[in-house]
Amino acid sequence: MPEKTYKLIELVGVSDRGVDQAVKNAIARATKTVRNLDWFEVTEIRGVIESNKVTRFQVTLKVGFRILDDKELGKD
Q1: Distance, CA of 53 to CA of 63 (rounded, Å)
Q2: Longest dimension (CA), the chain
Q3: Using alpha carbons only, how large is the chain's radius of gyration in Å?
């Protein structure tokens, strides 16, 4: 298995539909500007209560993206 190096970033996803959707929203947005996303870890879950109902979910994620090696960069 080739050696890999990762960089961690922290994201916060928000949704009024649930925790799962908040995670998907954060990852979908990150893929527009960050390449090689490989994994995530949920570190916090929060919510907003309005009029005695949960109205929004907020999820903090650690996301790992792979740093390209010299071969992948074309620098053999």
Answers
A1: 30
A2: 61
A3: 16
Q: Distance between CA 57 and CA 61 in Å, rounded?
A: 13
Predicted confidence pLDDT, tens digits, the chain (76 residues): 567 889 999 999 999 999 999 999 999 999 999 999 999 999 999 999 999 999 999 999 999 999 987 677 777 6
Question: pTM of this prediction?
Answer: 0.84
41 within 8 A of 61, measured Cβ to Cβ = yes
Query: Which of 69, 62, 76, 54 has the alpha carbon at shortest distance from 30?
Result: 62
Give the alpha-carbon dihedral of 11, 16, 21, 25, to 10 degrees: -40
